[in-house]
TrEMBL record:
Pfam families: HI0933_like (PF03486), HI0933_like_1st (PF22780). It comes from Arcobacter aquimarinus. Residues 2-404 form the RsdA/BaiN/AoA(So)-like Rossmann fold-like domain. Its cofactor is FAD. This is Flavoprotein, HI0933 family. Keywords: FAD, Flavoprotein.
Length: 408
C-alpha cells in the first residue's frame, strides 16, 4: 500500500511512525515545504518546545464542536504520549503547571529524534516540496508539485496546518485541497495572538508590563476572566493573559461581534478600598503633583495617561484633587477598558482557529466522511487549543489515530 502524507509537523510525523510500526511494508512518502521537519515544533515554547500538557480535556479546545477531540484524547492521553516519547528516546520534563517540555530543554532534540525514527522506519521524506494539487483518479491519488508528479497513492493525509506563522511556510493550501474534494471549512483566524486596540495612547504605554486580571466582554456580556501578564505595546496589548484571552476574543471578532477587554491592575483590591489607599497616599505629600505620587503604585508611563483619561490636569497637586476624581482614578485602575479592533495577524499567531469542519470527518479514524481514503489531522481541522502544549498534543493524538487507520 502506498500512502502520501502532506505536512511534516507533529500530526504528519506521528501518523508516519505509528503506521510504519504497525506495517513495515507500507510505502509512506512524507512531503513538507520546509528544509527540515517539524518547524512549528521547533518554534513552540520559545524554542524550548512546550510539547504537550499532562492535564487535558475537551475544555482546553474551541471550535465548532470541541467534543470532537474526546476520542483522540482518550485513545492517546498523556501517558500514551509519554510512552511514545520513550520509544524514540525522548525523555520529558513535566512542570507543576502541567506543561511538558523535553528534558533536554531544547526543541531541536525533539525533531532530531523524530527524524531518526522516520529514517529508521524507511519513511521517504521529501523536503522543500510545495504541493500544488491533489487529485483522485480511479481510486488512486496523485500529488502534483511544481515540476514533479507522484502518482498512485492509495491513501492521503492532509496535515499541513493553516496560516499561523507564514514565515515557516505555513499556508492554507490544505483548505484548498479539502474544498476540491467537497469539504467545507469555517473561516480561519489568528489565535494565541496580540490584540490591537483603538486607543490613541497605545504608543505612550509601550513596554509597560504587569500581572493583571483581564476580563473579556462580547456585546457587553462578560465572557471570560484570566489572570496573568499583560504587556502594553505600540499596537495594543500582548502578554500571556492576552494571548490566552485572545482565543475567544478573536473568534468573536471574526464574526463581527463587539469585543472589549477590561484590565484590572489591582485585582486583589476593590475600587473603594483602592480609592481609600490613593486618598491616604495623596495626604502624605499634599504639595506634590498627583502624577508623580501615582508612580509609587503604577508605572510612570501609566500615570499621565491615567490622569488624561480621568480628565485631570497633569499639574494638579495632591491637595487640589477631590474625592470624585480619586474615585475616577480607582475605577479606571480597576477597569481599564479597551475596544479590540484587530489582531497582530497570522505572522505573530501561535495557532490558527477555524479550518475543515469536523462534522465532515470521522472522530475515530480522522478519515473524510465524503471521500474514501482521504484523511485530515492537526491544525487544518476546526480545532484550536489553549496555550500550554494543547495544540501540539491534539496534533500528536489525531496523527496517532490516523496512523492506526492508514494500515487498515
Amino acid at each position: 500500500m502506498k500512502i502520501a502524507i502532506i505536512g511534516a509537523g507533529a500530526a504528519g510525523i506521528m501518523a508516519c511512525i505509528t503506521a510504519k510500526r504497525l506495517n513495515k511494508n507500507l510505502q509512506i512518502d512524507l512531503f513538507d515545504a520546509n528544509k527540515g521537519i517539524g518547524k512549528k515544533i521547533l518554534a513552540s515554547g520559545n524554542g524550548r518546545c512546550n510539547i504537550s500538557n499532562s492535564s487535558i480535556t475537551s475544555k482546553n479546545y474551541i471550535g465548532e464542536n470541541p467534543d470532537f477531540v474526546n476520542f483522540a484524547l482518550k485513545e492517546f492521553d498523556f501517558k500514551a504520549f509519554e510512552k511514545f516519547c520513550k520509544s524514540v528516546g525522548l525523555l520529558l520534563d513535566v512542570k507543576e503547571s502541567c506543561k511538558v517540555y523535553p528534558l533536554s530543554n531544547e526543541a531541536k532534540s525533539v525533531t532530531n529524534l523524530l527524524e531518526l525514527a522516520l529514517n529508521e522506519l524507511g519513511v521517504n521524506i521529501y523536503l522543500e516540496s510545495f504541493i500544488r494539487d491533489i487529485e483522485k483518479v480511479d481510486e488512486k491519488f496523485n500529488i502534483k508539485l511544481d515540476e514533479t508528479e507522484y502518482k498512485g497513492y492509495d491513501k492521503v493525509l492532509i496535515s499541513n496546518g493553516l496560516g499561523a506563522a507564514p514565515q515557516l511556510n505555513a499556508n492554507e493550501s490544505g483548505l484548498e485541497f479539502a474544498s476540491k474534494f467537497g469539504h467545507t471549512y469555517n473561516s480561519t483566524y489568528p489565535s494565541l495572538v496580540g490584540l490591537k486596540t483603538d486607543n490613541t495612547y497605545n504608543g505612550k504605554l509601550q513596554g509597560v508590563k504587569k500581572e493583571c486580571n483581564v476580563i473579556l466582554f462580547v456585546n457587553n456580556n462578560l465572557e471570560q476572566e484570566i489572570f496573568g501578564d499583560v504587556l502594553f505595546t505600540s499596537y495594543g496589548v500582548s502578554g500571556f493573559a492576552i494571548l490566552d484571552i485572545s482565543q475567544l476574543a478573536v473568534l468573536n471578532l471574526s464574526s463581527y461581534q463587539d469585543v472589549k477587554i477590561a484590565i484590572n491592575f489591582f485585582p486583589k483590591i476593590n475600587k473603594n478600598d483602592l480609592a481609600d489607599q490613593i486618598q491616604s497616599l495623596l495626604k502624605t505629600v499634599p504639595n506634590q503633583r498627583v502624577v508623580d505620587i501615582l508612580t509609587g503604585m503604577v508605572s510612570n508611563k501609566i500615570a499621565p495617561v491615567l490622569l488624561d483619561i480621568c480628565k485631570i490636569n497633569i499639574d494638579t497637586k495632591a491637595n487640589e484633587i477631590n474625592a470624585k476624581q480619586i474615585k475616577a482614578i480607582a475605577y479606571q485602575l480597576n477597569s481599564w477598558k479597551m475596544k479590540i479592533v484587530d489582531t497582530q495577524g497570522f505572522g505573530h499567531a501561535e495557532a490558527s482557529g477555524g479550518g475543515v469542519r469536523t462534522i465532515e470527518v470521522d472522530n475515530r479514524t480522522y478519515e473524510s466522511k465524503l471521500v474514501k481514503n482521504l484523511y485530515f489531522a492537526g491544525e487544518v481541522l476546526d480545532i484550536v487549543g489553549n496555550r500550554g502544549g494543547f495544540n501540539l498534543h491534539f496534533a500528536w493524538a489525531s496523527g496517532y489515530l490516523v496512523g492506526k487507520s492508514l494500515v487498515k
